[in-house]
Amino acid sequence: MKTINYNVAYHLAENKNWKTSFGVNGMKQWNENKAEEAIIPDYDLFDFGVYGVTAKTWNQTTLSGGLRYDIRSLDNKSLAGEGAERFMAFNKTFSNLSASLGATHAVSEHVSLKANVSRGFRAPNSSELSANGEHEGTNRYELGDRNLKSEVSTSIDAGIEITTNHVDISVSPYFNYISNYIFYNRLLGANGADSSINDAPAFQFSQQSARLMGVEASFDVHPHPLDWLHFENTISFVRGRFTDPVDGSSNLPLIAPASLLTELRGEFANATKVLSNFYAKVEMNAVATQNNFLQDLKRKQQQKDMCYLMPE
Q1: How many structural domains compose the chain?
Q2: pLDDT value at position 296?
Q3: What's 92-152 look like in SS3?
Q4: 195: number of CA atoms within 13 Å, CB side?
Q5: In whole angstroms, what is the distance from residue 96 CA to residue 71 CA?
Q6: What is the CATH number of the domain that holds 54?
Q7: Is residue 214 part of a domain?
Q8: Is the peptide bond before 257 cis (omega within 30 degrees of 0)?
Q9: How far is C-alpha 127 from the geometric centre of its chain's CA atoms?
Q10: Can you give the residue range of the structural domain that contains 98?
Q11: How far is the C-alpha of 237 from the C-alpha of 215, rounded, in Å?
């Protein structure tokens, strides 16, 4: 794979507390298979995006917003394997508009509030559109779907930040609605049993609208006079659900469970004559059990019913 990224931006001079900039960026990418096995085809991809952002500050309040338009052109190449066409050639073009509007308000010297509403999109990649092969890293035979549409999200988030001489606290809840959410789905055979290809379970990319909601929070203690000591804690939690159940389950697949990252760090600006900005830390990551995972409840019920019908 070869990738060329480009970015051109122009920042206007600040005028009456207005800060404005605009530009274009994107990338050109080529992918070529040279190994004996191929999961995705050769492809050429070109991304182009144009954007503008601005921010205005009044006393203790800052209002910011932005607009962006993106277009992606994907040219998948034909590729034969074992005497048959394994990947068919096709061209796809995806485009969409993204936008955001947010505000920050300093309630006092130590407390600030923020809120943001935004709209974004993500075009499906070559793997999601055209995969046809066993992924050794996941032990899945993956199949793409060239009819996939772009994911489009609408999100709302808010937050509060408290900063003092001894403690920093931030809490940021969020909600995200995603139409055409792309995910793995287990393929079933004609008899209702799990489907496999080359002894690997078969999965295909699919789409369904989804909702994600969660919270991120941090807690940092740096007590005086021990300014060099930091006790940092970061908590993250997200709950993902389909708007309409998939095979009887509403849980999104591959959603990370709640986690707590704790770090005890000592910073020493002038430790010795040889070392400066030296630090040492101990870190612990505690991850909860994920019980809200995607499972085929309909298939499980069918298998249970079949057990009842089987003669003794």
Answers
A1: 1
A2: 60
A3: EEEEEEEEEEEEEEECCCCEEEEEEEEEEEECCCHHHHHCEEEECCCCEEEECCCCCCCEE
A4: 15
A5: 7
A6: 2.40.170.20
A7: yes
A8: no
A9: 16
A10: 2-218+243-255
A11: 5
